[in-house]
Structure formats: C-alpha cells, structure tokens
C-alpha cells in the first residue's frame, strides 16, 4: 500500500520521464519509486562505510591501498539514468 506524495521536478526531468513512460510497461509512479529505491539503497551502502579523514585517504591512495580515480563530468554522464534498467 502506498501513499500519494507531491513533489517538484525540473522540466527536463519530467520530459525524460514522460518519454521513457511511453516506451515502458511501467507507470511514472513505478519508475519514480524504482529510482528512489535505488538511490536510497546506494546511499545506505555509502553510509555503511566508515568515514575516513581526507589525510588518511590521501595517504592510502599514495601507497596504493586505495585506487585513485578522476572525478569529472564525463564518467558521471556515462552512468545510466536511475530509471534505465
């Protein structure tokens, strides 16, 4: 059983959601619910990791214990949208 909630989305996100709904067997509500569940699941995974001070993380990257990776817009844009399966 669910509850009705109201929230605001940017126009481009609504357009993308409407386009995806036209070719998907899922309703907009189902797509949004899936996206929110995935986001919350990922956030819980991140929260489960023990916090590490930046200096400790830098030291571990320097000695090779942690992988170093570039963070810029291109890899983030390459990730699938939350509603894509």
SSE pattern, N- to C-terminal? HHHH
Cα distance, first to last residue? 24 Å
Which band does the percent of strand residues land in? under 5%
Cα-based radius of gyration, to the nearest Å:
18 Å
Unreliable parts:
none
Task: Please state the overall shape, judged from the principal axes of the Cα atoms.
Answer: elongated
Number of strands: 0
**Main beta-sheet strand count, sense and barrel state:** none
- How many helices in DSSP terms? 4
**What structural class do helix, strand and pairing data support?**
mainly alpha
Could you tell me the mean pLDDT? 80
* Residue share in helix: 55-70%
Give a written overview of the molecule.
This protein has a domain at 11-66. It contains 4 helices and no strands. It has helices spanning 11-23, 28-48, 54-62, 73-78. It has 85 residues and is mainly alpha-helical. The protein starts with 10 loop residues before the first helix and ends in a 7-residue tail after the last helix. The protein is 58% helix and 0% strand.
Secondary-structure map:
Layout: H1 11-23, H2 28-48, H3 54-62, H4 73-78
Descriptive tags:
58% helix, 85 residues
Please sum up the structure shown.
With 85 residues, the protein is mainly alpha-helical.
């Amino acid at each position: 059983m669910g509850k009705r909630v109201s929230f605001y989305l940017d126009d481009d996100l609504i357009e993308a959601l409407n386009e995806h709904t036209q070719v998907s067997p899922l309703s907009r509500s189902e797509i949004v619910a899936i996206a929110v569940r995935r986001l919350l699941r990922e956030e819980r995974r991140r929260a489960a990791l023990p916090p590490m001070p930046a200096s400790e993380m830098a030291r571990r990257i320097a000695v090779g214990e942690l992988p170093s990776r570039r963070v810029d817009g291109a890899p983030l844009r390459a990730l699938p949208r939350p509603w894509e399966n």
